Amino acid sequence: MSCFSFLKVMMVLFNLAIALGGAALLGIGIWVSVDGTSFIKLFGSLSSSVLQFVNVGYLLIAIGAVLFILGFLGCCGAQKESKCLLITFFSIILIIFIIEVAAAVVALVYTSIAETILQGTVSQTLKNDYGKNKDVTSIWNSTMEEMNCCGLMNYTDFNGSYYLEHHKQYPLFCCKNDTHCTAEIADRSNVTGCFPKLLSEIRSNAGVVGGVAAGICVLEIAAMAVAMYLYCRLDEK
C-alpha cells in the first residue's frame, strides 16, 4: 500500500469517527436542552454547576454540528478524492485552530474580566428566577446540595431576590440546613459560594484540561497536514 492510499484510508476512518462523535454530541445536546434534570442526576454536581454558567445544551449542539460537518467533509473528501471538499475541510480546521489560539490568549489575559461578566449575568438569573422558575430552582438546589455551597459567591447573592421577598428567609443551604435561615445565621455559617468552588475544581484539573487541549491541537495540525498532502497529490494523478 502506497503512502497516499494509507493516508487516504486513515483520513476516512478518522473523520468517520469524528462524524459519529459529532452525532453523539448532537444527541446529548438535544437531551440536555429538553431534559436538563435527568442530565444532572446522571452526571452529578459538576454538571449542575456548569449548567449555571453555560447553556450546555446549545453548546453541545453547536459543537456536535461542527464536528459532524467536519467529519463528513473529511471522510467524503478523502474517499471521493475531491479537492473541493478537502480544501474546505482544511480551511474550516484552520479557522477553528486560529479561534482556539485566540480564545486561549484572551482567557489568559482577560480572565478576571470574564469572571466579572459571568458573575453579573448569573447573579441576575439567581435573583430573578430562583424560587420562581422550576428548572432554575431545581438546578441550583442540586448544585448547592451536592457541592455544599450557597449562591454564586455567598448568601448575599439572595439579597433583593424573588426567593427572599416571598419566603422571608435565605435558602437552607446557606445556613447548613437550619430550620430557618436568617441573614445573621447565614453570615455566621459562612458557607462558600458555588462559583469559587467550581473554579477550584477546574483549577485542580488544569493539567488534565491543558493536556486534552494540547492533544486536540496536535490532532488538528495533523488533520490539516494530511488534508493538504492529499490535496496536493491529487494534482499529480
Describe the main β-sheet briefly: none
Helix content, binned percent: over 70%
H/E series: HHHHHHHHHHH
Question: Distance N terminus to C terminus?
Answer: 16 Å
Give the overall pLDDT as a whole number. 81
Rg (C-alpha, Å): 23 Å
Tally of separate helices: 11
Low-confidence parts:
44-48
Strand elements, count: 0
**Beta strand %:** under 5%
Explain this structure:
With 237 residues, the chain is mainly α. It has helices spanning 3-34, 36-43, 45-53, 56-79, 83-109, 111-129, 134-147, 162-167, 183-189, 194-204, 206-234. The longest helix has 32 residues, at 3-34. It is elongated, with a radius of gyration of 23 Å. Mean pLDDT is 81; it is low at 44-48.
Describe what is shown at a glance.
The chain is an all-alpha fold.
Task: List descriptors.
single chain, 237 residues, mainly alpha, elongated
Summarize the SSE layout with pairings:
Blueprint: H1 3-34, H2 36-43, H3 45-53, H4 56-79, H5 83-109, H6 111-129, H7 134-147, H8 162-167, H9 183-189, H10 194-204, H11 206-234
Helix pairs in contact: 1-2, 1-4, 1-11, 2-3, 3-7, 4-5, 5-11
